[in-house]
Design brief:
This protein is of the alpha+beta class. The protein has five domains: about 5-105, Rossmann fold (3-Layer(aba) Sandwich), CATH 3.40.50; about 135-200, Dna Ligase, domain 1 (2-Layer Sandwich); about 205-450, D-amino Acid Aminotransferase, Chain A, domain 1 (2-Layer Sandwich); about 455-575, 2-Layer Sandwich (Glycoprotein, Type 4 Pilin), CATH 3.30.700; about 580-660, OB fold (Dihydrolipoamide Acetyltransferase, E2P). The chain is about 25% helix and about 35% strand. A hairpin with a 2-residue loop joins strand 29 (about 550-560) and strand 30. The radius of gyration is 31 Å and the shape is elongated. The chain binds ligand MV4. Ligand MV4 binds near residues 131 and 287. Its cofactor is biotin.
Length: about 650
């Protein structure tokens, strides 16, 4: 087995490969771009080399640099992951030419599957079922029209050089064929530099079912069940699952054996995926073959109990397949959701930013998170904005879906928009639970998936206010001593029903809040709607009762920016603090009230060492909050008032002794 490999990739797949390699005692060399200097995969590797500037063309696609680093570091093999150079025949050849094992298929197999029509010719010879149609080299329009008539309508014109849904055009009857063909040829010439078309009967409600295959260097081949990847948006997979719901054992066997035959037809080695269109009548047709480990391979790992990266490493090192076909069993059901930094409310445009706050679901036998980021990382414009893959497993699909919904609700990301809410709505939707799966799923259920959050802003802000109050309480001195006079708000208040104001901004709108502390909680009034609220906060978890409804939410308060996390959705609002210019404060050791007002927070206690500018007391006056800050480094010697006290203009609030002169 290899003692050292280089991972020519980044993000979650690089981390994932390193995890398995380390488990097998293999040392790992990472490569990174300037944008990934502090990336998780670099930290996980045993050593790492800088490739160059952030753009992929100057880093992760620089085959020459990657090979140099492999040779310099003594790596015996390179794992390409997916994307980047994973299906680059020149790179695969260059590895072998430098006596470095390419952990993937032979370059010839990559080339064979690189062209749609060549792939179809190979599959035809291997008796792999193709969608009825024409994929010949003769592109004479009259011949194509005759083939279209033979095929029948509706039919699909597909650009041979196209892919991923690009260059497809539906033709519904012969009368429009000639014009449609000419248009499709023009588009294909412009987009791919090749006008050649193939014709296929159009399947109106197909599912995307793909078979995981593995072949070793001794000519053995197996299939590891299938994955259903029908839930896609604009040809991007959103949720994948294994096994395919409703697929019979007979069909599984037929598809699996067909996929292995397809792999053997091109002398395949390593992990591969044969994609099929699965029609409503149970028939299936070859679509394409991917000559790499797929993003969604974890769902196959979860139902088979196999580590596919370990299989890749062993096979690349010349070992035979770890299992024979009859030894491969599947159990339960797995789902994968791709968590993206994107804005579903803005046409899923990718977003960039810093992951200021990141809490992932607890991992266990049922929940797995494959990610390449940690809290504080940047999501940049340079690479795919996938934050993580969330994979769940359970004994059956219904329980697996419940796991997924709960895990998505526990996946909390602050600092940028994500598709988590969208994923949760999709996974929990009735059509999805009822297995109404076909490639048009998202389009068909668009309204259901984009339902606006019904929770009114006022109750959201009451929750946000409660979170802030509990946070302040936690930062008060003596918070652990319930009997401390600093916590007995009522007895220290000069008049009973002091109402503290607060102001929130949601979007462009300002919302006035007033808070009256009661015996067991608060009356929080938001825009004249009053809520009775009591809560306890531990870390970022708020257990709250609002108007008798007990619920559990999480929050993240960064300065004035508040994010509430609830059922997979985020609610964002900003505290609007009216502050005055602290320079008005008197100099010297004691700090006085700038005007009549009330103490709303005491953040320091006698004996505490403080830094210049540190907030010691917050008071409210004239609907403004005033932060009383330490005028210099020193030690707090006295705090004269407590929360709820009313103070007069000029009253000394706190005394700070300067640091003893050295
Ligand atoms: C099809 C089809 C219906 N009939 N071919 C989309 C991209 C490429 N993977 C092939 N695709 C399709 N080919 C015939 N004859 C419908 C699709 C298709 C699709 C296929 C799989 C997964 C998602 C899809 C989304 C739209 C269309």
């Amino acid at each position: 087995m290899f003692s050292k490999i280089l991972i020519a990739n980044r993000g979650e797949i690089a981390c994932r490969v390193i995890q398995t390699a380390h488990r097998l005692g293999i040392r790992c060399v990472a490569v990174y771009s300037e944008a990934d200097r502090n990336a998780r995969h670099v930290a996980m590797a045993d050593e790492a080399f800088l490739l160059g500037p952030a753009p992929s063309s100057e880093s992760y696609l620089r085959a020459d640099k990657i090979l140099q680093i492999a040779l310099k570091s003594g790596a015996q093999a390179i794992h390409p992951g997916y994307g980047f150079l994973s299906e680059n025949t020149e790179f695969a050849n260059a590895c072998e030419a430098n006596d470095i094992a390419f952990i993937g298929p032979p370059a010839s197999a990559i080339a064979a599957m690189g062209s749609k029509s060549a792939a179809k010719d190979i599959m035809l010879k291997a008796d792999v079922p193709l969608v009825p149609g024409y994929h010949g080299a003769d592109q004479d329009p009259a011949l194509l029209k005759a083939e279209a008539e033979k095929c029948g309508f509706p039919l699909l014109l597909k650009a041979i050089a196209g892919g991923g849904g690009k260059g497809m055009r539906v033709v519904t009857h012969i009368g429009e064929f000639t014009e449609a063909l000419a248009a499709a040829q023009r588009e294909s010439q412009n987009a791919f530099g090749n006008p050649d078309m193939l014709i296929e009967r159009y399947l109106t409600k197909p599912r995307h079912v793909e078979i995981q295959v593995f072949c070793d260097k001794q000519g053995n081949g197996v299939y590891l069940a299938e994955r259903d990847c029908s839930v896609q948006r604009r040809h991007q997979k959103v949720i994948e699952e294994a096994p395919a719901p409703g697929l019979s054992d007979e069909t599984r066997k037929a598809m699996g054996e067909t996929a292995v035959a397809a792999a053997k037809a091109i002398d395949y080695v390593g992990a591969g995926t044969v994609e099929f269109l699965y029609d409503e009548d149970g028939s299936f047709y070859f679509m394409e073959m991917n000559t790499r480990l797929q993003v969604e391979h974890p769902v196959t790992e979860m139902i088979t109990g196999q580590d596919l990266v370990e299989w890749q490493l062993r096979i690349a090192d010349g070992e035979p397949l770890p299992l024979q076909q009859e030894q491969i069993q599947i159990r339960g059901h797995a789902l994968e959701a791709r968590v993206y930094a994107e804005d579903p409310d803005n046409d899923f445009l990718p977003v960039t930013g810093t992951l200021h706050y990141l809490r992932t679901p607890d991992e266990n036998a049922h929940v797995r998170v494959d990610t390449g980021v940690i809290e504080g990382d940047e999501v940049s414009v340079y690479y795919d904005p996938m934050i993580a893959k969330l994979i769940v497993w359970d004994e059956d699909r219904e329980q697996a879906i419940n796991r997924m919904v709960h895990a998505l609700e526990s996946y909390r990301i602050g600092g940028m928009k994500t598709n988590i809410r969208f994923l949760r709505q999709l996974a929990d939707s009735k059509p999805f639970r009822d297995q109404e799966l076909d490639t048009g799923f998202i389009e068909k259920h668009n309204d259901l998936l984009f339902q606006k959050d019904k929770t009114d802003i006022q109750s959201q802000l009451a929750l946000a206010t409660s979170y802030v109050l509990e946070t302040e309480r936690q930062t008060q001195p003596n918070k652990d001593d319930p009997d401390s006079p600093f916590n007995l708000q009522t007895s220290w208040r000069l008049n009973a029903n002091y109402s503290r104001p607060m102001e929130w901004v949601v979007g462009e709108d300002h919302h006035q809040v007033s808070i009256v502390e009661q015996q067991n909680g608060y009356d929080i009034t938001v825009d004249n709607v009053t809520f009775k609220v009591s809560a306890t906060l531990s870390d970022d978890h708020l257990r709250v009762v609002i108007n008798g409804h007990r619920l559990s939410i999480h929050g993240h308060l960064a300065g004035n920016d508040m994010t509430l996390f609830r059922e997979g959705q985020q609610f964002q609002c900003q505290l609007f603090r009216h502050t005055f210019d602290e320079s008005d404060q008197s100099a010297g050791g004691s700090l006085t009230a700038p005007m009549n007002g009330a103490i709303v927070a005491v953040l320091a206690e006698a004996g505490q060492i403080v830094k210049q500018g540190e907030t010691l007391v917050i008071m409210e006056a004239m609907k403004m909050e005033h932060s009383i800050r330490a005028p210099h480094d020193g030690t707090v010697t006295e705090v004269y008032f407590a929360v709820g006290d009313l103070v007069s203009d000029g009253a000394a609030l706190v005394a700070v002794a300067p640091v003893e002169e050295a």
